[in-house]
Amino acid sequence: MASALSFPDQVRNWLETMHFQCEVEKDSNVFFTTVTASLGERSPFCLILVGLYDWRNSGASESEAQKILDAMLRERQKSVITVVLWEDYWLTRKPIVISRLTAMQGFGVKIPARLTQVRRTDNAQTNAFLDKNHLNGPTSSKFRYGLYLPRRYYRILPEDFQFDQSVEELLVAVATFSNARIFTQQNASFRSHELIRFASLLHTNVVGAFDKLLHAFIREKQPDDIMTYADREWSEGASYVKLGFERRDVSPPSKVFLDTTDLSRHTIKRHASMSLESADISPVEYLTVYNMGSIKFVRTIKHFENEY
């Protein structure tokens, strides 16, 4: 049964159960709600909440998407951690949204990556993990790596941490990469890969996970560079910069089609299928939404890194 509370009220109630103090702002000139949350000595963070009903009534246009982007950048220019959150993600991926938001505030079970073992994962295990732990779910990839916490280190996990304690090891982080794109640079062959997905187990902070997975891939595949994209709705990619990635390009907000029947997102409109009796099925109703674009990052791999 759907909640009788509005989307902003649901988010605010959740924040208050976490003991955050909230300041809510809804300007009559805009369709989104801004919530600034603070807790003790932690740095405050800002959520720009976009409800689907308000978005539809706003006209659901590119110019309206620009208003969201402008509000997001204003907050970030003030060094405030800012996230743009659409209602469909809250409704369909709430555990992942909550895990990411709390991780940004330093909550979550800390697991040192040095206690884990890194190795390749199979497609089924990777997809299952990403479906439960990555906001955008699984997607195709060529190379998949995981970090596994051996049973002997389960003692570092809190007693109330929920997981299958019968398994011999716990998969706590995953990174996936594309096949090599090979081209010529300065009369030599150059191999470039894309980092496609990275995710940690819900409600954990695997300290050093990204670095360890990245170096496992570099050691095995010896790329000349690795490129990836930061989702601007969540960050400006500071974690990539810390690991030696350089900011190369920024893409503007782009159009996405939201299936209003199941709240799934698509880059193109799907056609309605036919029933067994060959009767027409009503076309899928879509709402056009916009993401806030992305930032392209590239890390050039020096020769000595391949010997890590």
Biggest sheet features: 8 strands, mixed
Structural class by sheet pairing and helices: alpha+beta
* E-strand count: 17
Q: Overall mean pLDDT score?
A: 92
The topology string of helices and strands comes to: HEEEHHEHHEEHEEEEEHEHEEEEE
Shape: globular
Distance between the termini: 53 Å
CATH architecture of the largest domain: 3-Layer(aba) Sandwich
Poorly predicted runs: 274-279
Number of domains: 2
Tally the helices: 8
**What's the level 1 CATH class of the largest domain?**
Alpha Beta
Q: What percentage of the residues does DSSP assign to strands (E)? A: 25-35%
Oligomer designation = single chain
CATH topology of the largest domain, anyone?
Aminopeptidase
Estimated radius of gyration: 21 Å
Helix content: 25-40%
Walkthrough of the structure:
- The protein is of the alpha+beta class.
- The protein has two domains: 98 residues, Trna Endonuclease, Chain: A, domain 1 (3-Layer(aba) Sandwich); 123 residues, Aminopeptidase, CATH 3.40.630.
- Strands 6, 7, 8, 9, 10, 12, 13 and 17 form an eight-stranded mixed sheet that branches. A four-stranded mixed sheet has the order 1-2-3-4, sandwiched between helices. The protein has a three-stranded antiparallel sheet with strand order 15-14-16, with no helix packed on it.
- About 2% of the residues have low confidence.
Furnish the topology, listing elements before pairings.
Elements (H helix, E strand, L loop, with lengths): L6 H11 L3 E5 L7 E6 L6 E6 L1 H7 L3 H16 L3 E6 H6 L1 H11 L4 E4 L4 E4 L2 H11 L9 E8 L18 E9 L3 E5 L2 E13 L3 E4 L1 H13 L3 E7 L6 H5 L3 E5 L3 E6 L5 E2 L19 E6 L2 E7 L8
Parallel strand pairs: 3-4, 5-11, 10-12
Antiparallel strand pairs: 1-2, 2-3, 6-7, 7-8, 8-10, 9-10, 12-17, 13-17, 14-15, 14-16
